[in-house]
Design brief:
Layout lengths: L7 H7 L10 E2 L5 H4 L2 H6 L4 E3 L1 H7 L6 E3 L6 E3 L2 E7 L8 E6 L4 E5 L14 E5 L13 H10 L3 H10 L7 E5 L8 H12 L3 E3 L17 E4 L5 E4 L4 H14 L3 H18 L4 H20 L1
Parallel strand pairs: 1-2, 2-3, 7-8, 8-9, 9-10
Antiparallel strand pairs: 4-5, 5-6, 6-7, 11-12
Bound molecules: zinc ion (ZN) (2 copies).
The site of one zinc ion has 5 residues, from helix 2.
């Protein structure tokens, strides 16, 4: 189990009351949204792994507490875990590289930057907290400053992913979105465009990836600065399906209007042949919703 930042009740529910099947719990840092239930988890008989600083912050010291250090590998059940430092406003914050012998997962949240590069990772689960583009303008200055210095922005996540070897990567999970400052669909689309990989947003909001890994391999191109950029060229047809899917999944006229304002230019650019069809679907969906409202 990675993190325990919700109530023990919720954890039990999510695990279908089989907490005894869990071989251990990794805790990235001492903030409540990651560590809240740690003492309860330990009471339930699960060993917890965390840095010295985290243990102090959460008051964990019993025999179920295992102190870990950056870049010192350890085993939990069938997994090997390599902790690494993350950059967050909480001492002793860690990310984890977890391997079960066949696949490798990188888990990193609450960090504005990751200095390590990873090779052969199958799954990236990384924070994507905000985008410089969507930072709410009425956000308090102090909050904004904290966000910029302690959390991963969309722009940095993309840079981080592009700097890594994605050849084995099967999925990217974006975690820890801050509601007011992020736009799940936009984030997912951007990361998918930049990496050519299926992208999922948060566990609670898990839906189908926008684009399933298909036999069309992602290919490498170069941008003007001659840095490699991973991109999967989506076909017009794929964009059309994506946009039509969006329209069907939006459930209010207001949301649809916001969606249209945001994506109008992209639709014209990415699937010019289908603009009329998408427009018709949009108009039909609005009519449908208005009718549903009236009755
Ligand atoms: Zn935190
Ligand atoms: Zn957090």
């Amino acid at each position: 189990m990675i993190e325990c930042g919700v109530s023990i009740r919720r954890i039990r529910e999510c695990l279908k009351f089989r907490l005894t099947d869990v071989c251990g719990c990794l805790v990235s840092h001492g903030h409540g949204d990651h560590s809240k239930a740690v003492l309860d988890v330990q009471k339930a008989g699960v060993d917890c792994y965390m840095s010295e600083e985290t243990a102090q912050a959460v008051g964990a010291n019993g025999h179920r507490t295992h102190i870990i250090e950056p870049l010192k590998q350890f085993r939990v059940g069938q997994f090997t875990v390599m902790p690494f430092e993350t950059e967050h406003d909480c001492a002793g914050s860690l990310g984890f590289l977890i391997s079960d012998g066949t696949s490798k997962l990188v888990f990193a949240t609450d960090t504005f930057y990751i200095k390590h590069k990873f090779v052969g990772i199958s799954i990236f689960a990384v924070e994507c907290n905000y985008s410089k583009e969507t930072l709410s303008p009425d956000l308090d200055h102090a909050v904004k400053r904290r966000l910029l210095r302690s959390h991963f922005s969309l722009e940095n996540v993309i840079q981080f992913l592009q700097a890594n070897d994605l050849s084995q990567c099967q999925a990217i999970h974006l975690l820890h979105l801050s509601d007011a400052n992020s736009d799940a669909e936009m984030f997912r689309r951007r990361v998918m465009q930049a990496t050519g990989k299926p992208v999922y947003v948060g566990a609670d909001r898990a839906r189908q990836p926008l684009h399933r890994a298909d036999n069309q391999a992602a290919h490498q191109t170069r941008n003007r600065a001659n840095e490699p950029v991973w991109s999967h060229k989506m076909t017009q047809q794929e964009w059309r399906d994506t946009f039509l899917g969006d329209i069907q999944s939006l459930y209010s006229v207001k949301l649809l209007r916001v969606w249209a304002a945001r994506w109008a230019e992209d639709i014209k650019r990415d699937c010019p042949d289908y603009v009329d069809e998408i427009r018709a679907a949009y108009v039909a969906r609005i009519e449908e919703l208005k009718k549903a409202c009236a009755t």
